[in-house]
């Protein structure tokens, strides 16, 4: 993959404030939700926080297959990553994402039982821009 394309993909994920997260429901249908994008460890690993009591957590505990979608609507660029989602409830993951103000959602603070972290591990990507569509193994970047 060309360095310019790698740079475009990295910029898209670095600038993202919202990411679309897809899970699979009990009937086998995809479910997609917009979530605040928190942090990533390169293109392969992404972290988001959510409520443990959410529908999405239950879906990922049953079926870890997942998809993240990043987009820049104005430039008509999109990146789809497929992989697996892990639901993390350990303190180290929770500390990694905790931000001041989260107390509004999690009144018991970082140890609130309803606070958890999604850890997404990508295996494949598909990048779209300028009538070009490139599928690649995430290891390639």
Structure description:
Helix content is 20%, strand content 46%. The chain has 141 residues and is α+β, with helices and mostly antiparallel strands. The protein has one domain (3-140): Roll (Pnp Oxidase, Chain A), CATH 2.30.110.10. Strands 1, 2, 3, 4, 5, 6, 7 and 8 form an eight-stranded antiparallel beta sheet that branches. It is globular, with a radius of gyration of 16 Å. The model has no long low-confidence stretch (mean pLDDT 93).
Summarize the structure.
The protein is an alpha+beta fold and 141 residues long.
- Mean pLDDT, nearest integer? 93
* Global outline: globular
What is the CATH superfamily? Electron Transport, Fmn-binding Protein, Chain A
Q: Estimate percent helicity.
A: 10-25%
Distance between the amino and carboxyl termini? 8 Å
Task: Just name the CATH architecture.
Answer: Roll
Main sheet makeup: 8 strands, antiparallel
**H/E topology pattern:** HEEEEHEEHEE
Oligomer: single chain
The beta-strand count equals 8
CATH classification class: Mainly Beta
> What is the total number of structural domains?
1
Counting H and I runs of at least 4 residues, what is the number of helices?
3
Strand content: over 45%
């Amino acid at each position: 993959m060309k360095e310019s394309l790698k740079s475009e993909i990295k910029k898209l994920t670095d600038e993202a404030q919202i990411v679309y997260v897809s899970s699979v429901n009990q009937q086998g249908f995809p479910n997609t939700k917009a979530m605040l994008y928190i942090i990533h460890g390169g293109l392969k690993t992404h972290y988001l926080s959510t409520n443990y009591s959410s529908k999405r957590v239950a879906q990922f505990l049953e079926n870890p297959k997942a998809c993240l979608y990043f987009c820049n609507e104005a430039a008509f660029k999109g990146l789809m990553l497929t992989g697996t989602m892990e639901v993390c409830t350990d303190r180290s993951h929770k500390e990694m994402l905790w931000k001041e103000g989260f107390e509004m959602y999690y009144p018991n603070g970082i140890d609130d039982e309803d606070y958890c972290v999604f850890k997404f591990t990508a295996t494949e990507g598909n990048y779209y821009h300028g009538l070009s569509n490139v599928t690649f193994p995430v290891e390639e970047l």
